[in-house]
Write a structure and sequence with these properties.
Layout: H1 2-13, E1 23-30, E2 35-37, H2 39-52, E3 54-66, E4 69-79, E5 87-98, E6 104-111, H3 115-124
Parallel strand pairs: 1-6
Antiparallel strand pairs: 1-2, 3-4, 4-5, 5-6
Length: 131
């Protein structure tokens, strides 16, 4: 399906050159820190990430389509703008719900770690799990 290729490319380019035309105007977005509706706010959030953080990489580990829902498994890596420039690593997954026209009407992100763990990465840096 074409949307899968678009999503793969958007993850590779993230946060630059995103394909906003695959989202409905009133798209619903939710992650552990944000919840809102509307493509304008979605674009603003992506722009903020790109302007505030540095060295952003969004590694796509898996993508699958089941009925009207795309699921992606990913890890977001970025450098915080704090003076000691900690490198953050946020593993998670997204559920992208599609309408009958194939547009994304809901983008819900889940993290495999808590927001508290992300805050600790800002303070102490990312520690690789030794398992």
């Amino acid at each position: 399906m074409e949307i899968i290729e678009i999503i793969k490319q958007d993850y590779q380019n993230f946060p630059k050159n995103q394909t906003y035309s695959i989202y409905a105007d009133d798209v619903y977005f939710k992650d552990p820190l944000n919840e809102f509706r509307g493509i304008q706010r979605y674009q603003t959030m992506i722009g903020f990430l790109g302007n505030f953080f540095r060295e952003i990489n969004l590694d796509l580990h898996d993508i699958s389509l089941q009925e009207n829902c795309l699921k992606t498994e990913w890890t977001l890596h970025l450098t915080s703008p704090l003076p000691w420039q900690p490198r953050l690593s946020i593993p998670g997954w997204s559920e992208l719900k599609l309408n009958q026209n194939g547009l994304i009407i809901a983008h819900i992100d889940y993290w495999h770690i808590s927001p508290w763990e992300v805050l600790k990465q800002n303070l102490f840096g990312f520690k690789q799990n030794s398992q």
